[in-house]
Amino acid sequence: MSDTLSPQIRFGSNAGQPATRRDGLAKVTGVATFAADNTPEGLLYAVYAPARIARGRVSQLDVAAAEAHPGVTHVITPQNRPELQGDPSAKPTMFSFRTEVLQDDTVRYAGQPIALVLGETLEAATEGARLLAPQYEVDPVRVALDDNTASGFEPAGFGLPGGASHGDVEAGHAVAARSIDVSYETAAQYHNAMETHAIVAQWDGDRLTLDTPSQALNLSCAGFAYFFGIPPENVTLRSPYIGGGFGSKAIPTGPQVLAILAARMTQRPVKLMFTRQQMFGPVGHRGATRQRLRMGVDETAALTVIDHDGLAETSTFDDFVEPAANASQGLYAAGALRASHRLVRLDVGTPGPMRAPGEASGSAALEGAMDEMAEAAGMDPLEFRLRNYAETQPGTGLPYSSKALRECYAQGAARFGWEGRPMEPRQMRDADGLLTGWGMGTALFPCPMFAAEARATLRPDGTALFETSAVDMGQGAWTVMAQIAADSLGLTLDQVEFRAGHSALPDGGVAGGSGHTATAGGALHAAGGDVLRQLGELATADPQSPLYGAGNSSLVARDGWLLLEADESRRERFSDILSRAGQSEMIGTGHGGRAPEAAGRHAMNSHGAVFAEVKVDPDLCQVRVTRLVGAFAAGRIINPRLTESQLMGGMIWGTSFALHEAARHDPRSGRIVNADFAGYHVPVNADVSGLEVITVHEDDPYVNALGIKGVGEIGIVGTVGAIGNAIWHATGKRVRHFPIRIADLLAP
Questions:
Q1: Are 466 and 552 in a shared domain?
Q2: 460: Cα within 13 Å, side-chain hemisphere
Q3: Which tens digits make up the pLDDT trace of 85-118?
Q4: Which domain holds residue 510?
Q5: How far is CA 85 from the centre of its chain?
Q6: Omega into 252 within 30° of 0, i.e. cis?
Q7: Do 375 and 460 belong together in one domain?
């Protein structure tokens, strides 16, 4: 197997600079237009009525009362819903799920749309939906893993992981000198980005224009086109600003389809915006898991086996697995590895991708179990992880494209002060008498790449326009991509106009999986490179040019000049090359992606280490995370400021995962009883302090031409386990479910 280097890109002065967000001013001044800000003339407002039970059927709706309310124009139910051209149970594109579009009166989960009300005002539509006063025939519900665990099944099909096994697992158990057998649970979490889902739909004949937040514009266009029997090119999707996505806005939802259907039926624009409560329904969620980890070590504390079984919830009508056991496949060197996944069908909406799907839940269990195994072996947790450090990918033996995890351990531990940590729990108190604990966790996340396209236009004044349908979910992608684009032509950032977030632009691929910057950024850089190639061909073939005969490969771009690298006195302005050739502009195109054969040559991951300090009131058992130090190696860092922000955001979500977030179901109705921020807790400013991020330098010549790995998700990974381990170190109590509550620590 050959080691093929990615063609390396020369970066200019923009990469590595902490440029401020290009979209920041528009957002803070209110100029930025989000989907729900669009109010075209003749607009109707749509509100869907959500099911208040989780299983059964709708036996009655008071349609007459709703229709009689002033301002209500239409009530759409399963009995009068216009036909769709595409089957709602089909999956027309990647990231497709079976949708609920009032195809019948069956209720399959709480929050499922059971009717759609249209009104001249939002208030009228809202009241109309309330007046429907649905009645139900209720069936017994299954909303917890305990309800149906015995019927777990192995997932199969597109995008679903199967089991993975390397080495003799049973022998690994048999030869272990010390072993553990522990189970961890994680609660269901629901998407709660700042911007709820919304859509404004307008028809013009058989052409459809949509304003809706989307992480995958062109895929979404194809999905919506399928349902309405029109070509994908007839769908225009505008998504210039997104108030957070985290996976849920990559997938078209049933309510969006219903809004489009309503717009076609009425021949008027229709707007639908989810309430906060409706986010606990048809937009995907992180499914609850139950994970069993069996580990063993020999007399030298080397791992003989990691056996990780993950059980996760899915819906009764579709399959999505939270691939938690994947966390154990690529991190620690063990003599044998097994990762298995099973699903349990429950009366819930179909789960879906949520920031760090699989790795977030899986590492919470894995890192807790690693600390338990270290304790059994009588070793410091960091020492134990270093003892089992993987020099090549466990199981496959593939070399890493790059791996600076040792440096992450060293720099994070030094900054945190880990060397002073006592081995035994309940050994540290602060000046106020609070129990103090220190814990750690390792972070790993894969480096996927999707396919993307971009276009670059060099203008006669030497400035450039770059275009791609890539999206910014608030993480600063537009700024980072503009930095990459500017460097591709050797221009300053203020010489580049960047257009994105519109489906008519070249396909920017999918914003997700921490692969967007590498993929769309690669396409943008390639588009700029295509412009330079054309400029060089013109100049080096023109006897009037100072670059005549120089050879294109020897040229570089800087400050609007094309110059000979070996003799910079031989140079020519971009504008002069264009002018002499009689061209007003020059257009280049580029593609981003990874060759399939490249993915099989190396293991490609971002790595990190998170160190946590907690303080626990010994009487009240109230927990505060007082310090988090995360050290991450993620390849080339284009914008340190935005990278730090992304990693901090992930670590804060890790705090939320460890101590706050959990959806609670009424066991009788299956309805989520805490579908608001009063009951569904997320961190606030008071919950976050002492947050530090270290980015560890790493050159990766294989992962892609940009050397970028991605940082959007890895901040969560490792943080949850680090906090759980710190709580054990403070209290001596090992809690094996998340979130950890005060009641867990008060229990004897």
A1: yes
A2: 6
A3: 999 989 888 888 999 999 999 999 999 999 999 9
A4: 24-31+450-593
A5: 31
A6: no
A7: no
Map residue 505 onto helix, strand or coil. Answer: coil
Question: What secondary structure does DSSP assign to 697-746, as a single string?
Answer: P---SSS-TT-B---TTTTTTTHHHHHHHHHHHHHS----EES--HHHHH
The residue among 566, 593, 620 that closes a domain is 593
Do 443 and 454 fall into the same domain?
Answer: no
- Count helices and strands (H / E) in the chain: 16, 30
342 bridge partner residues: 311
Is residue 329 within 8 A of residue 339, CB to CB? The reply is: yes
Q: Does 146 fall in a domain?
A: no
pTM, two decimals, is 0.96
Query: Any idea what the Cα angle at residue 288 is, between residues 285 and 292, rounded to 5°?
Result: 145
Tokens of 378: 């009588």
In a domain, 421, yes or no: yes
Q: 42 lies in a domain?
A: no
Judge contact between 552 and 536, C-beta under 8 A.
Answer: yes
Q: How far is CA 562 from CA 534, 540, 553, in A?
A: 11, 11, 12
User: Could you tell me if 561 and 443 lie in one domain?
Assistant: no
Domain's final residue, options 552, 567, 593: 593
Please report, for the domain that includes residue 687, its CATH number: 3.30.365.10
Count how many domains the chain has.
2
Other C-beta atoms within 10 Å of 566: how many? 9
Distance CA 254, CA 24 (A): 32
d(CA 31, CA 412): 40
Placement of tokens 């061209």 in the chain: 583
Report whether 142 contacts 346 (CB < 8 A): yes
- Residue 686 shares a structural domain with residue 618: yes
Render 629-697 in DSSP notation, one character per residue.
EEEEE-B--S-HHHHHHHHHHHHHHHHHHHHT----B-TTT--BTT-STTTS----GGG--SEEEEEPP
| Residue of 322, 359, 644, 713 marked active site | 713
Would you state the pLDDT for residue 595?
82
Residues 579 and 612 in one domain: no
- Whether residue 511 sits in one domain with residue 478: yes
363-382 per-position pLDDT tens digit: 999 999 999 999 999 999 99
Same domain, 545 and 533: yes
Asked whether residue 464 carries a pLDDT value surpassing 50, the answer given is yes
Closest of 531, 726, 539 to residue 623, by C-alpha = 726
CA distances, 6 to each of 529, 532, 611 (Å): 15, 20, 34
In the chain, what's the furthest Cα-to-Cα distance? Answer: 88
Answer yes or no: 713 catalytic: yes
